[in-house]
Write a structure and sequence with these properties.
81% of the residues lie in helices and 0% in strands. It is mainly alpha-helical.
């Protein structure tokens, strides 16, 4: 995710609690979606759709946060 920000993401994962929470939430949703899609856990198409929308919203928040920090530097 966002290879152009790889170094900044690595630093933030170790130093910024808010960023870490967003990053972990995105990964958690990604794993839940994957588990339902691969039939590891039961779920419906509707549940997947809701989680994908939430995941996209979190990704948008992460991107906005990265852009904000980039412009502040």
């Amino acid at each position: 995710m966002f290879p152009e920000y790889r170094d900044l993401i690595t630093r933030l994962k170790h130093s910024d609690r808010h960023f870490t929470q967003l990053f972990d939430k995105h990964n958690e949703l990604d794993q839940k979606i994957h588990n339902i899609e691969t039939h590891v856990v039961p779920g419906t198409g509707f549940e997947i759709e809701v989680m994908k929308k939430e995941k996209l919203a979190v990704k948008d928040q992460i991107y906005a946060y990265l852009k904000k920090l980039e412009t502040e530097s």
